[in-house]
Specification:
By secondary structure, the chain is mainly α. It is 73% helix and 0% strand.
């Protein structure tokens, strides 16, 4: 594969699947300053993976795999780094993004961020409209396991929403 071909594929994938990558980034970061870092890391890994893409699965499946694995690895590394640098945690970020206009969406991503890694990944794939079969392929688990896990995630989110509603928040 030539560098030009790799660049064309990368540009096409980035244009076509940018929203997919942003969902993963948002679900695996809580700080605005971390979003750019994770997005960049996913793009680097995606670029490196292009020569290994054989077309045996959909490009979206491949990109989800890259994005989710990169996000999980990045998060582990980031936790270790943050624990070493806790004295800097109270500083305000230098760059600010515009405020998110939808409080419900912010709540949903906050709740998704609190799920374990597998459930978080499943929630993102479900939000993106993937079928159970596609989710199973991306995650490397059975369709029936996907169904059980998604049911449990939905139940947890509904309980949390009812709790907020009951408390008038």
């Amino acid at each position: 594969m030539t560098a030009t071909e790799q660049q064309q594929i990368f540009n096409q994938w980035l244009k076509q699947f940018q929203g997919l990558i942003f969902k993963v980034v948002r679900a695996y970061t809580t700080e605005v300053v971390d979003r750019d870092d994770l997005f960049q890391e996913i793009c680097i890994q995606l670029w490196r993976s292009i020569p290994g893409f054989k077309g045996k699965s959909a490009a979206s499946t491949w990109i989800y795999r890259i994005a989710l694995r990169t996000a999980i690895t990045w998060q582990k590394k980031e936790r270790k780094e943050r624990s070493r640098n806790e004295q800097y945690a109270s500083q305000q970020p230098i760059l600010h993004s515009p405020p998110e206009p939808d409080d419900r969406l912010d709540w949903l991503f906050k709740e998704i961020n609190q799920l374990d890694q597998v459930d978080r990944s499943l929630a993102l794939l479900l939000l993106d409209g993937l079928s159970y079969k596609e989710i199973a392929e991306v995650m490397g688990i059975s369709e029936s396991n996907v169904g059980v896990k998604i049911y449990r995630v939905k139940q947890r989110l509904m309980r949390r929403a009812k709790l907020l509603e009951t408390n008038g928040l």
